[in-house]
Each structure stands twice: as C-alpha cells, then as structure tokens.
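TL;DR need structure tokens for one chain.
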Amino acid sequence: MEMHEAPELYERIIHYDEVKEVQVRLTVSTFRGVEYLSLRKYYMDFEEEWKPSKEGVTMPIDFSNSKELFIGLTEILSLAESKEVIEEHFSDLLTAIYK
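>> reply
TL;DR here they are.
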C-alpha cells in the first residue's frame, strides 16, 4: 500500500479466539492531527457487534516508537522457528541487535 493511498484508519485482526469471542486488533488512526498505533482487545456484545475493550495500548507513531517496536518484533521472530528466513532477510539488523 502506498502511503499517499493509505486509508484514514488501518485495521488488522492479529488474533481471534472463537471460543471466548475475543479479537486483538492492530489499528492506526489519526486524532487531532497525530497518528496513533493501537493494540486493543475487542469483544462481541449482545447485539453481535465487535466493541473495543479498555484492555490495550495506544501510542503515537513516531520514529522512535516504530523503530523499537520493529526491533522487538524482529527479536521475537528471530527466536521462532523461522529464524533462518529472518536471518536471511534481516541479518544486518540482527547483527546490530546482538552485538
């Protein structure tokens, strides 16, 4: 997706528990001219609509937050089964992290 074509709200379900009827969503939204990234738990209400819960975190999207989030996710993925694939594509970053 091109940044100039980005929707007003980006939203992606990153976890869905069918038994508990709970989702975790990653969203990017703008409020008062500031872009925010949120990870929030959603629940199914009695009218069968998904509603955001109070459980979650929201932070401004800036270079520092984005960089630290990317580094954290890269560290987690580097420990997962796909370590060889991650090393192939992100070896420079991994070398810098584990120095």
